[in-house]
Design goal:
445 residues; alpha+beta; Beta-clip-like; Serine Threonine Protein Phosphatase 5, Tetratricopeptide repeat; 2 domains; binds zinc ion
Length: 445
């Protein structure tokens, strides 16, 4: 029996190193959905407890009409309504509810690391799903168990005691052994909220730091969160579809070491191939601003030519493919982390000129590293537009409105590709709201 339910957009072909590669069965335009998969199981991070529903994961911040209430059985899980509570109960929670509270207060649980605690809750819920043997989960469970295990032998972790006989310990250990290299962090509006098991996505899609597709999550009432793989470039028939397992902006040595350690492979994607011979040396955090000041004007000229206008043409591919040698240091650690910290401070406290110039440099570096329609770039341009709009509301200079409008227009082109995700709100809505404010302010002029 073949446990993989391949969508008609993809075909698996053999690969000498990876198990398989998934290639497109036809030309896929930018912004198309290649694969849709409801999570087999998912658990929120502890800081989301009580503000998001433990079943559908919608938030009462973005949907204030939601009343998220505790499960009175365990007082640990929270639901937006009775329907979600019932669906979660039927799919797994009824086997663990009674023991949940005692378990999370127990010495054995509290002795675990934060990551292990998270794994332990995901594993407990997965084991409960498996124990219940519901037909709707059967294929996904088979697919999950067919995934490659982590290259490292993991120490066993406990699971919440079940109200029915769980599978044997050896099977539970084999499930856990597939966590580190297969589980996904759920991002809503580009922020992490929890961990999901997506067997089909894990089975089909390989990693690239220069990906042509990304994952987004859709949250709807009375449904498990649903992952969608969406293309961020045109993909030709026969080309491999790949997603990033980690942020491509992580420095090259760090990326390679994490990929090797967690997934057991060396990446030889386009970005890695370019960054390998660059032999980037590590620079000290204290050197970053000096270096950036020296290189900034030339880097802006290289990345933006005559300047940034609303009809700014995004490059065809990452600028690193033709990056002059002088700028290579800017792709090194810790440049981006120093710059994003300094951008966020200057955005809040000023000076405005510094925030905008640092923001532009981050934009230029993102264009070097990320594919042009990578959602993180759109998100950053929205942040820049907000800074310009805030400056306008303080200083009332029309030039700042134009700047805000320019960045929003480019941000919208990028975020339209990523499309709607999460529950309500999110960067695309914010872009449209701010554009509307600008239109209104222009009409009043
Ligand atoms: Zn819900
Ligand atoms: Zn409960
Ligand atoms: Zn790579």
């Amino acid at each position: 029996m073949n446990p993989i339910d391949i969508p008609d957009t993809l075909r698996l072909v053999d690969h000498p190193i990876a198990r398989n590669t998934a290639v497109a069965t036809r030309n896929l335009p930018i912004g198309s959905v290649v694969l849709t998969e409801p999570v087999l199981t998912s658990v929120l991070f502890p800081d989301k407890t009580g503000s998001r529903c433990d079943y559908c994961h919608r938030s009462d911040h973005t949907e204030p009409e939601l009343r998220i209430r505790k499960c009175t059985g365990c007082e640990v899980q929270w639901y937006c309504d009775e329907q979600c509570q019932k669906l979660h109960w039927d799919s797994s929670h009824r086997l663990v509810c009674k023991a949940y509270l005692d378990f999370v207060m127990s010495r054995v649980y509290l002795a675990l690391s934060d990551d292990q605690m998270m794994d332990c809750l995901v594993l407990s819920q997965l084991v409960a799903e498996i124990t219940l043997r519901r037909p709707e989960s059967a294929t996904a469970i088979l697919t999950f168990e067919s995934l490659l295990p982590s290259p490292h032998e993991l120490e066993a972790i406990p699971v919440i005691p079940m109200r029915r006989d769980p599978p044997p310990l050896s099977r539970i250990a084999a499930l856990y052994q597939r966590f580190p290299n297969n589980n996904h962090v759920i991002q809503i509006h580009l922020r992490p909220i929890g961990v999901a098991i997506l067997p089909l996505t894990s089975r089909l899609l390989n990693h690239s730091c220069s990906p042509n597709a990304v994952l987004r999550y859709i949250l709807s009432a009375s449904q498990k969160p649903r992952a969608e793989v969406v293309t961020i470039r045109e993909i030709a028939e026969g080309d491999e579809v790949s997603i990033p397992y980690l942020d491509p902006a992580i420095s090259y040595p760090e990326r390679q070491s994490r990929l090797k350690d967690i997934y057991g492979f060396e990446c030889s994607c386009k970005l890695c191939t370019i960054q390998l011979p660059m032999n980037i040396r590590s620079i000290a955090g204290s050197e970053v601003l000096g270096l950036v000041n020296a290189l900034e004007p030339a880097l802006h000229q290289f990345a933006f030519g005559e300047g940034i206008t609303a009809d700014f043409q995004l490059p065809e591919e990452q600028l690193c493919v033709r990056l002059p040698e002088d700028f290579r240091l800017l792709m090194d650690d810790p440049v981006l982390s120093v710059l994003t910290t300094s951008f966020s401070i200057a955005s809040d406290e000023g000076p405005f000129e510094m925030a905008m110039s640092t923001g532009k440099t981050i934009f230029a570096i993102y264009l070097c590293i990320y594919p042009p329609c990578y959602p993180q770039i759109g998100f950053h341009l929205l942040e820049m537009a907000k800074v310009a709009w805030n400056e306008y509301t303080k200083e009332n200079k029309r030039g700042d409105v134009e700047t805000a409008n320019t960045y929003l227009t480019i941000a919208r082109r990028i975020l339209d590709v990523y499309g709607r995700e999460g529950d309500s709100g999110g960067p695309l809505d914010e872009v449209n709201e701010l554009l509307e404010l600008i239109r209104t302010s222009e009409e009043q002029e």
